[in-house]
Amino acid sequence: MGSRGESIVVAMVITRVVSVVPRLLSWECGGLLSLCAAALFVQLKAEHAAHQFKIQRLNPRPGSSSGIFLGAVTLPTVMLSRLIQLQRSLLAYGSESPALETLRLCFWASCACSLGVLSFLVFVLWYSREGGNHHSSAKRMQVSAIGIAFMVAFGIQCSFSLMGNTESGLFISMGMVWLLLHALMSGIVLQYIIHKFPSCSSIGETLLVTSGLVLYLSDVLACILSKVKMYAPLSNQFVGGLNVKGDEIGMIVQAFLGSLLLMSVTYNSFLHIWICCIKLIKALASRNDERTSEKFQTSIMFYVALGITLIGLTPQWLYYIKDFETHPLLWVIDFILEKPMERLAVCIYWLAVICVSVLRFYNISKDSKIERILLRKYYHLLAVIMFVPALLFDADFLKLAFGAALAMFLILEMIRVWQILPLGDLVNQFMNAFTDHRDSEIIIISHFSLLLGCAIPIWMSAHFNDRPLAPFAGILSLGIGDTMASMVGHKYGVLRWSKSGKKTIEGTAAGITSVLFACLVLIPWLTWTSFSSSQDWLSLLIAVIFAGLLEAYTTQLDNAFIPLIFYSLLCL
Description:
- With 572 residues, the chain is mainly alpha-helical.
- The chain has 21 helices and no strands.
- The protein is globular and about 60 Å long.
């Protein structure tokens, strides 16, 4: 029932987005609907009893539904909603925005990523020869025919979309090759995630992460190609279209996070080589001393690699690839000193809130009998206390702070996983006090998803935004809606949405009501301070209700999906 209810809510969201698509985005609308049909078809087949043993080969998180439909359409829906918003600005102000064409390519790229993962799932379900009864040749031919028909339809829609914005045949051809590359990269990244992080996420969550990583990697590849002389003619038409220069904050955040991700992937390989070399040189000492020495050497190697990554690799990337003229550390200092009193005061406020809250919540987690799910919601409230004032008064500084916080989380997670001295055990002990069934020893994802859920709507609203509440999508849905739904549902909930689920109607009603009340408080302030456009209250009501229903029915990681769906609805 949970999976069926989740699919119905997602279909309602798609219907809402499609209902306001302008005529100029008809091909994109058709592409999203085609992707929805393919994702729903694969999900229904994947959840069929005959395929369950094959799905287990993908190592999904125990107890979760597949979430294929939700995972496949989330990013394309966000991109299409953002396209609708930018198209509205074009009609209102009569000027073409470079971000519109960039986002159009990103929409088709996100669809290609989902298509690549769906193709991989079809291969696992129908063509794998490991375990179970094999499908008949007629059945496989039927599935192949459906897949080929969908590929052709998707390619035609994409071609006509690109054709409507350029007369260059080379651009269209390279665009199709670029999208094919996204689909192939998605299959490779998906298999890497499944292999490295077994039983850490559902298929839908893995699909979402895969699409996000591939979109980021494609942007990196576009930056590199734009610097290669032999691709200079194409960079002006195609690669350059993907690599439109963003603001300095986006460049710095992207560079540092990319460097840390690269370090997390390659560190183990370099460490293995280092340890082997040390063992060849030193073959003395007892076993205990050897273990202590090995752990110490591992820690030294980690800090050396971290220093090289942050001090050497990241600035060089910004210099040569992003054409960043200032050292990033100096730029950050200058940025803070543009408004020294305000921004230093915000930093002091954040540090004070974090110190008091972390110590308080950690002591409560050890000494009281409060359920862990409620303890975790305190951090959602903490996000509201920290982020709302900063977003109201200095959104640019908050964008940079989100990047710094995410980088710090990545470093702390690497320290925890690899048990780096001297903080490895302390960080592991603290983080385990707030984990739930969706976290594992391999990786703890709750804090990442909460931070990204609050940050992504703010980052995406950077260049143009005519909907005052859109940047608040993550803070409202997670910090207020999800928190109130959990607390009220846990204490007063009686009527459950399904027999097997824990979500209650009372909790969902409380979450929807609290978000609407917060919007009533925010909108007059936002309209008076910085936004001239008014909020459509009917559209807001629909967005809040749909987000609340998704929170009630989904068994996926709500911190990841609900802010993105809520943001896409608020952009309409």
